[in-house]
Structure formats: C-alpha cells, structure tokens
Design a protein that fits this description.
By secondary structure, the protein is α+β, with helices and mostly antiparallel strands. It contains 6 helices and 13 strands. The protein has one domain. A hairpin with a 7-residue loop joins strand 6 and strand 7. The N and C termini lie far apart (about 45 Å).
C-alpha cells in the first residue's frame, strides 16, 4: 500500500461537486399523470412466478404497476422501446442523473443515441424508506442482475434460474427467437424493491432484506411504447443470497392501465435526443 502524503487530509477534505446538475432537466408533469391515473382502467396483468421471468407490453401514455403480492420479493426489470429493441433502459445514465436509487418523480432513461425518458415513476409506496444508517436504499440502478457467469466464476456452479437467465428465456419465448439471439438484448436492470448500497469501509456493493410487504407497489407512466421483462429474483428478498433455490421466493404482479380519452390533454412522447450526431466530424 502506498504511503500517505503529508497533505492527505487536505486532499480528502475537498468538497464534492455534483457531476450532472439537473436544474435544467425537463421535469415530468406529475400532476397531469396522477390525475390521468385516477380514472384509468386496467387492461391486463401478468403474474411473474418465483425464480422465473415474464414479458409485458405497455403502450405510450399508459401506466404499469409492479406489486408485492405474497411476500417480500425483489424483481429485476429490463425495458425496451417496443418498436426498436436497440433503444433500451440505460441504468448508468439513470443513475448519473437521479442517483443510485430511484423513486417518485424520477425517470428511467434510454440508451444512446436516443437518451430520452422512457418511463416516469409516479408512485412508490416505499419512498418513505429514504437512506438508512448503513447507506442502504430501495429500487437500485447500480446492480447488474445475478447471472450464471459470475456464479460460475466465484463458485464453479451452473445455476440457471438467476435473473439473467430468467430474462433470457422469457425474451426468447416472447420474441420467438433462440436463446443465443435473446441473450444480447438483456441489459443492466432496475432492481425493483431491492435494498442495497455501498459499504463505507470497502466501497463494496451490499444488499439487505427488502422492506417491501404484500401490497407495496411502484407505478410508472410509459413515456414511449414499452416492452418490459421482469424476473422474480431467486434471492427472494435478498436478505442473504441472490442465487439460490433455498431462499423463500414469491411472485410479482405487473398490471397495465389505460387512462380515459383526453385525460392526458396535449401530452406526447418525448422526442429523440437532439444532439446532431456529428461527433466533431
């Protein structure tokens, strides 16, 4: 380990600067969205079985709710532009703009070159949790999803009901393609209901028991046509293990709602990012 310089304390004391100040970020009209949600009618649902995944479609201007139904359960969520699967949820930029964990009023952003909001969180029954004494919070955009490759690397196992494999199988079935064709579509997730953070001493990613209980839910407004896929994580509430056939696991419910005609007034889907794409050439 390198020896500490004489001015180490002064270097550590330098005040941080927010990388992406969001004062100029377009703000969602939560008042409009919530008013439209009041009389919205349910059009469909899908129950995600424990240790499995399922796909669902949400048209632009509709709402979708993810609920804990039988017990505390973490869900790994992937989202795509339903009309162009190359435009998908970008967890890194969402994290850079809103923080490590997202909640009411935050938005899920799409990948380059589109970089636009794809969904807006309009309600979160766990937004009371905040940040706990360990630095933990709920609904993270820092975890990558449990996967068979890391499991093999660390423990020399071949576990097939991890979230990456669950999402891969569900997308292959939904699209009618092979596993090899579906797997590259799977990307870093929003960890719904998962409570995570970074340790203060080593900076390691940690998880702890989800505070979600039956009835807890998070609701989104679809800013564009969305294809979603969610895995009910084999870790259950992720209190101890996120790749396991032992942890108690429960289903997750996804419901879709359509607002009444005219409820959104003159709302329209966000435009693609307006950068000219020249990259200096």
């Amino acid at each position: 380990m390198a020896s500490e310089p004489d001015d180490a304390r002064a270097r550590r004391a330098v005040a941080p600067v927010i990388c992406y100040p969001t004062a100029t970020l377009p703000k969602p009209d939560l008042k409009l969205y919530r008013a439209a949600r009041l009389d919205a009618q349910k059009t469909g649902e899908i129950l995600i079985p424990p240790r499995e995944a399922g796909c669902f479609n949400v048209p632009a201007g509709h709402f979708f709710r993810i609920s804990s139904v039988d017990g505390p359960q973490v869900g790994d969520l992937n989202l795509w532009n339903a009309n162009d699967l190359t435009e998908r949820f970008y967890s890194g930029k969402t994290r850079a703009l809103h923080g490590t964990h997202i909640t009411t009023g935050d938005r899920l952003w799409t990948s380059f070159p589109s970089l636009r909001p794809m969904a807006t969180i309009i309600k979160d029954t766990l937004d009371w949790y905040g940040i706990d004494q360990f630095g933990g919070s709920v609904h993270d955009v820092i975890g990558t999803r449990c996967d068979p490759y890391t499991g093999n690397l660390l423990n020399d196992i071949h576990y097939h009901h991890c979230c990456h494999s669950n999402l891969t199988r569900a997308m292959a079935d939904h699209l009618g393609v092979s596993l090899a064709e579906a797997e590259p579509l799977i990307h870093d997730v929003m960890n719904v209901f998962m409570c995570t953070g970074f340790t203060r001493d080593t900076g390691q990613y940690f998880m702890k028991a989800s505070p979600a209980r039956p009835g807890d839910h998070i609701e989104f407004f679809a800013e564009i046509d969305i294809l979603g896929c969610m895995s009910a994580c084999p870790g259950g509430d992720c209190a101890a293990d996120h790749t396991s056939d032992v942890a108690p696991c429960y289903p997750l419910l996804v419901e879709i709602f359509v607002p009444e005609d005219g409820a959104l007034k003159d709302w329209h889907s966000p435009l693609l990012n307006q950068y000219d794409g020249s990259h200096g050439r």
